[in-house]
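Input chain follows. Return structure tokens only.
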Amino acid sequence: MNMTKTAILLAAMTALFMGIGFMIGGEAGAAIAFVIAAGMNVFAYWNSDKMVLRMHGAREVTEREAPNYVRLVQRLAENANLPMPRTYIIETAQPNAFATGRNPENAAVAATTGLLNMLTPEQLAGVMAHELAHIKNRDTLTMTVTATLAGAISMLANFAFFFGNNRNNAGGLIGTLAIMILAPMAAALVQMAISRTREYSADQLGAEICGRPMWLASALQRIESGAARIDNEAAERNPATAHMFIINPLHAHKRDSLFSTHP
């Protein structure tokens, strides 16, 4: 199901790219946009997880470097009948976490230093079980590709505003403004459509993996309070990745609350 969802997402993003390309440069613009989109789709499939981890300055750690964290993930992965994912730490005081990877055999989990320092071992188990549930449900490919392509759409909208060849007439200006407004909205709506269902499903499966539903519930209350008070500079620079985190990491704009998946 998630592979189908990802294929539909890639096709929709390609169509949107072509539409924007057509508005910028007619048929030639649409053709160029198609080539760019096709290349981006292939690149996103193979490299989007690495890009997202790099965006947030994530550092891979071993059991020797972070024994409690790595052993916890290993135990939970065994409970979930999953291969051991790569484990990363993100140096930020904001408590948060996400999972990424194109499949369970090529997956990774990332936790912030704020999360590791704030939560009890039981609460941390609830959070990491939730992230492993995303891996087991094969959500991570869709989540990561969405982050990459949504960011690209926003960049293309900005490109349309600054370099559109019809800016000298009113119709062209209106079209360019529409692109600037609608393209980021389209990316946000795609993220929202994916987020609600997958988060609730991961909550349920995560509770089964760790064996205690209340561990995640208490963790969410604590990290939501912490995330609201502490900025995440990398997330603010890369807002298209916000939907990947267990708690919305963004503070800069009121519209960012649209990405919240745990009321």
